[in-house]
Design a protein that fits this description.
five-stranded antiparallel sheet; 318 residues; 5 helices; five-stranded mixed sheet
Length: 318
């Protein structure tokens, strides 16, 4: 990670960010682009280090449904094998002749038992087959209870449905320049009491030792009452800003990072939700400004927020 020697001496660093100061112990970004901590934990077993509930609630939708479908067929495949191992002659109603047909009918009997549908044209006889069927019915009830809970957890989990711009900009601002980044809500939610904190994380050399330093960047507006349209976070680059002395070349040659923390109140869930993101210095465009992303509707009685224009900007001279 390339360090920066030229930092504004008037800027005061923070020590309560939750990140360590030893730069030699860090690799890559502090925070991933999606807002998750860029940390890999070790020293515990694989299963001990995983919260399965959090994993199943947070994984992408397609992975969640794929796991449910694969688990469903895998379990029924195993129980069908057990029925065939005991002998399909202990399943009244199976009329198949070939081994494949016998396994197929045992599989669908397993599906009926697992889901507690029980059509009735196949029934177990004998202790072993009846015992396996009773265990499968119990396993099916527990499995569907867990799946239902996960469905509800994913469906009801409060989320901040907010998108951040892909790039931050160094743009003209009043008589000077400012760091700007943009965000916007993209779903039909009502978000109020939005509060943002922007922090600069960077490596500097102190007495020959690389050290992580973090600086809270003052915002032109750090809190708004309602987040209905886009919100551009503006940090004026004044003489007190840690970015004051940085040139276009410094942004291009240094591995700094802008950390963004956003808290908003979702009145539907009556709770505060949080979104995080970060911008590495190579994701900062020097000499640009955001293009407008909302306009008046044709009938002049609504404001249209164009989410697809969130990342639009135009180059300007500084």
């Amino acid at each position: 990670m390339k360090f920066l020697k030229k930092i504004n001496s008037k800027a005061k660093s923070d020590s309560n960010t939750g990140f360590g100061t030893n730069a030699s112990s860090y690799g890559g970004r502090f925070v991933a682009k999606n807002g998750n901590a860029n940390v890999k934990k070790s020293g515990v077993g694989f299963f001990e280090g995983i919260s399965w509930y959090h994993t199943m609630v947070n994984i992408p939708r397609w992975k969640f449904f794929l796991i449910i479908v694969v688990f469903y067929f895998f379990v029924n495949f195993i129980f069908a094998g057990l029925y065939c191992g005991i002998g399909v002659e202990h399943l009244n109603g199976i009329t198949a002749v070939t081994a494949l047909d016998k396994f197929g009918q045992a599989f669908f009997f397993s599906v009926q038992t697992f889901t507690t549908v029980g059509y009735g044209h196949i029934s177990p006889t004998g202790f072993a087959t009846s015992f396996i069927a009773s265990v499968e019915a119990l396993f099916g009830l527990l499995s569907f209870a867990i799946a239902t809970g996960l469905f509800y957890g994913r469906f009801s989990k409060p989320k901040a449905h907010i998108k951040f711009s892909e790039n931050a900009l160094i743009a003209p601002y009043k008589e000077g320049t400012a760091l700007m980044l943009r965000l916007a809500p993209f779903k039909n939610t009502n978000l109020t009491d939005a509060e943002a904190t922007v922090t600069l994380g960077i490596q500097i050399e102190e007495k020959g030792i690389l050290t992580n330093r973090f600086y809270t960047l003052d915002l032109e507006l750090a809190r708004i009452n309602a987040l209905n349209l886009s919100w551009t976070l503006v940090h004026p680059i004044t003489e007190s800003s840690p970015l004051y002395n940085l040139s276009r070349e410094d942004y291009a040659s240094t591995d700094g990072e802008i950390l963004v923390f956003l808290k908003v109140f979702d009145d539907m869930f009556s709770t505060t939700v949080v979104r995080r993101s970060s911008y590495s210095f190579d994701e900062i465009i020097f000499g640009a400004k955001f293009s407008p992303m909302f306009s008046r509707s044709d009938n002049q009685n609504k404001t249209i927020l164009h989410i697809d224009k969130l990342n639009y900007f135009e180059k300007v001279s500084l």
